[in-house]
Write a structure and sequence with these properties.
45% helix, 4 strands, four-stranded antiparallel sheet, 13% strand, NADH Oxidase, alpha+beta, single chain, 9 helices, globular, binds flavin mononucleotide
């Protein structure tokens, strides 16, 4: 299959180093509008998105870093993975982390290096534009699912315009700071951030974690 949609789906991977080149907010607005064609239960469209550039983007980064650098953490608005994490998820997550460290020449037992690696998340990997996805905090799993479809549409729409991205739960793990800086009401839950920009040609951006063979997770019935 070689059509453009499939090519874009296959080309989307998370990028973690960006050029100092602004992203057009007008273009982003059009992509968000297209992305809103995502399906949602009874067309409920539960998602909300904040688009940050310039001073606000920098302020959020600085406010989170003030805490991160002091080893102060906030409680995310929802738990991303079950605890304990099922062994098969854990193994893939470990592999993903270690492969990233290897590519960056980080020794996995070197805590300062690992902290610096994590810190890059709060610089949004130098991406000039950050999105924050949020929803009403009474949301259930279905509403989160809908928000994920919307996010994926945005990532694909961005890429169709040459703009790369990286979803960031790490950033969403500072929900109180996000709400404070963006003046978002307390009854809103922070779902994820998305760093957006033009990817540079750093080694880190060659990272594509392997996918399972389709038959490992697909059952065909007749
Ligand atoms: C909701 C969500 C949150 C994520 N949070 C982070 C993050 O905080 N930092 C990061 O470097 N990557 C993050 N990722 C990227 C994943 O590591 C990445 O999607 C996965 O390894 C698959 O790689 P690919 O996106 O390059 O195909 C996140 C992905 C998702 C879907």
């Amino acid at each position: 299959m070689t059509n453009q949609v499939i090519r874009t789906i296959e080309a989307r991977h998370s990028k973690r180093s960006f050029l100092k080149k602004d992203v057009s907010v007008e273009t982003v607005k059009k992509i968000i509008e297209s992305a809103s064609n995502a399906p949602s239960g009874k067309n409920s469209q539960p998602w909300k998105v904040a688009v940050l550039t310039g001073q606000t983007r920098n302020e959020l980064s600085e406010e989170i870093l003030k805490k991160f650098d002091e080893n102060i953490y906030e409680k995310p608005d929802y738990q991303y993975n079950p605890q304990p994490i099922p062994p098969e998820y854990r193994e893939r997550a470990r592999q993903c982390g270690f492969s990233l460290f290897k590519l960056k020449g980080i020794d996995k037992d070197n805590k300062p290096q690992r902290k610096e690696h994590d810190r890059q998340n709060y610089l949004f990997f130098d991406a000039p534009l950050l999105m924050i996805f949020y929803i009403n905090n009474v949301a259930e799993k279905g509403n989160f699912l809908d928000t994920g479809f919307f996010m994926q549409n945005i990532m694909l729409g961005l890429l169709s315009e040459g703009i790369s991205s990286c979803p960031q739960f790490s950033v969403a793990s500072y929900p109180d700071t996000i709400r404070k800086v963006l003046n978002i009401a307390d009854d809103q839950a922070i779902v994820s951030a998305l760093a957006c920009g033009y990817a540079d040609d750093s080694k880190i951006n060659t990272f594509i974690p392997p996918r399972l063979p389709v038959d490992d997770y697909t059952t065909f019935y007749q």
